TrEMBL record:
Signal peptide: none
Name of this chain's protein: Guanidinium exporter
Family matches, as InterPro entries: EmrE-like, Small_drug/metabolite_transptr, Small_multidrug_res
Predominant place of localization: membrane
GO MF, one annotated term: transmembrane transporter activity
Keyword set includes Methyltransferase: no
Organism of derivation: Phreatobacter cathodiphilus
Subcellular location: Cell membrane
Amino acid sequence: MAWIYLALAGLFEVGWAVGLKFTEGFTRPVPTALTVASMAVSLFLLGLALKTLPLGTAYAIWTGIGTVGTVILGIALFGESTQVLRLACIGLIVAGIVGLKLVSPE
């Protein structure tokens, strides 16, 4: 169950990271409220996952999911760069996430 909590926490991290763009500096009330709610849910789920998962592994995977998801949505929603080197670097992050999951004792 901890891995499910961690995956969901990572997805909510993507939500608040992308949500920050839509708050326009916290001047838009609805996007701001949704962003703050996503932050709270993400941290709550991370906390649940940390009950059984190693801190370093869980944190690295949480931020990795957030990073990769945010980059993908940045490309899809905001037309950010799809340079090959940039995508290769994101691939390295994915490889790191998979590697950490494979060597985790849980």
